[in-house]
Amino acid sequence: MSKTVVALAGLGTIGAGLAKLLCENPAAGKVLRLKSVLVRDLSKPRALPHGTIVSNKASEIVEDPEVDVVVEALGGVESAFAVVESALKAGKHVVTANKNLLAEKGPELFALARQKGVSLGFEASVCAGIPIIRTLREALRAETILSVEGIVNGTTNYILTRMSENASSYTDALREAQEKGYAEPDPSYDVSGKDAACKATILTSLAFGHFFPTDRIRTSGISNLDSQDVSQAEAMGYRIKLIAAARRTKNGQVDVEVAPVLLPKEHPLASVRLEYNAVLVDSTGLGLTLYSGKGAGPAPTAVSLLADLMDVAQGRALLVEEENGFLHRQENFECDRTQLERFYIHLSVPDLPGVLAKVAGVLAAQGVSLASVLQPEVKSDAEGLVPLILTTHQAQRGRLDAALAELGKEGWGKGVVLRIQDV
Ligand code: NAP
Ligand code: HSE
Predict the structure, then answer these.
(1) Quick one: which H or E segment has residue 364?
(2) Which CATH number belongs to the domain containing residue 101 in this structure?
(3) How many distinct structural domains can be found in the chain?
(4) If you average pLDDT over residues 394-422, what whole number do you get?
């Protein structure tokens, strides 16, 4: 039987991980042959099987009539889009690890793949090695999904774990995540929540059958958290995790958010450590199911890329189905600001008489009741401010935001506000 011929666009952290697995995995060796790779810099040494073509011209690998499937592991959007679009136009199957590309150009690319009758595999684009795309697309396809929430970024989970368990600094933990190959080529995508929001777009489109543009998802990252937030959350019995959450609302719409959240230590997502990811799905027939595993790094990502390639080689790759959520635009976003939730608030305030009374008064005027108040005994910062850490009883986010805007007029409203999720 002739082998399926693969062209690999990108031989960085992820591309090199896949090239290694293609050489070492016996099942892959039986059905797949890596013919060519696309890179930017031809002078870099590359560890590749003898005879592999290395090119810096996309057309050379994409237009090669012998190539059956193109793997995109370039990153970014523009060049990746050009490669994927021309491969699909040439009638080749495509496999990609690129969530930015799918979040931005998914509707166009899936429509093109459908028109050409080829597959577009993207298991590696969300949670690296966890087969969550297959689960939503195949195992749960007859289920009505009520919510999908999870830790979908390995870099930020690694940073938060190291800060909480080893008292590492944010900067040291981020550097380690980069060294281990978890971070994006531009790590600001990880820490700002953008990477998780792109993954939320993909998961939500599969779970709810509509495309949710990433720029409509309320997104906040972890870069404004400090070690005090991490240790204070621990002291209160919680762990801070960056959570991507999409829920059907009572009006039948969908509310999507990416934000750091305080989870009680007994919550199933609270014990997910380091670069591991986990996704909790609630569906009508099955109830809660939890999927967890390594969510970042070259090895787990290569496993998912290889699974998509094996599907192509063995004629099992799913074509783009009519109900693919990327093909259907969603206009009905709902941002539910009336739901009752508890909050953790870290303000910076002047250490002066009456400040605490003013803060409590402004919150009370919006019906926000305090559950706890802590002003640690620390020296004031360069601006003469000290931390004031509050937790609230259940309150509406909209009313809390109004109170914070009022405090903002005093110059004190700036700070960290996190949802506290009880089990
Ligand atoms: P990377 O290390 O920066 O590697 C990018 C590769 O693409 C390099 O080989 C580079 O060539 C090549 N390249 C980039 N632009 C090019 C262009 N215009 N023409 C030709 N070659 C070009 O990136 P990465 O960390 O491997 O990430 C790749 C993708 O995997 C991203 O979409 C990322 O989001 C995704 N991903 C990453 C993880 C993870 O755990 N890190 C997990 C899942 C998915 P040179 O080698 O010559 O520079
Ligand atoms: N940078 C990403 C993360 C890679 O840390 O989760 C996996 O998509």
Answers:
(1) helix 355-365
(2) 3.40.50.720
(3) 3
(4) 89
pLDDT level of residue 229 (50, 70, 90 thresholds) = very high
CATH number at residue 275: 3.30.360.10
Q: Give the pLDDT band (50/70/90) at residue 158.
A: very high
Rounded distance, CA 413 to CA 130, Å?
39
Q: 83: which DSSP letter?
A: H
* 3-class secondary-structure state, position 134: helix
- 114 with 146, same domain: the answer is no
| Residue 19 CA, ligand 1 centroid: distance in Å | 13
17 ligand 1 Cβ < 6 A: no
Q: Which helix (H) or strand (E) holds 149?
A: strand 145-151
Distance 417 CA to ligand 2 centre (A): 24
Distance from C-alpha of 122 to C-alpha of 9, rounded to nearest angstrom: 15
For tokens 């002066």, what's the residue? 352
Is 161 within the bounds of a domain? yes
Taking a C-beta distance cutoff of 8 angstroms, is the pair 357, 333 a contact? no
Q: Which of 99, 105, 116, 199 is catalytic?
A: 199
199 is catalytic: yes
Model confidence band, residue 52 (pLDDT cutoffs 50, 70, 90): very high
Specify whether 267 is located in the same domain as 150: yes
- Residue 142: count of CB within 10 angstroms of its CB: 8
Whether residue 274 sits in one domain with residue 186 = yes
Burial of residue 24 (number of CB atoms within 10 Å: 0-12, 13-18, 19+): exposed
Range of the domain at 391: 340-420
pLDDT in tens, 345-379: 999 999 999 999 999 999 999 999 999 999 988 88
Note whether residue 278 is domain-resident. Answer: yes
Instruction: Determine phi and psi for 413, rounding to 5 degrees.
Output: -75, -20
Question: How is residue 422 annotated by DSSP?
Answer: P
Spatial distance between the Cα atoms of 203 and 75, rounded to a whole number of angstroms = 19
CB 290 within 8 A of CB 271: no
Check whether residue 97 and residue 124 sit in a common domain.
Answer: yes
Ligand 2 site, residue 155, Cβ cutoff 6 A: yes
* Phi, then psi, of 35 in degrees rounded to 5: -95, -45
pLDDT reported for residue 38: 98
pLDDT in tens, 61-81: 999 999 999 999 999 999 999
Amino acid present at 360:
A
- The model's pLDDT over 374-398, given as tens digits with 9 standing for 90+, comes to 998 888 888 889 999 999 999 999 9
Residue 258 shares a structural domain with residue 145: yes
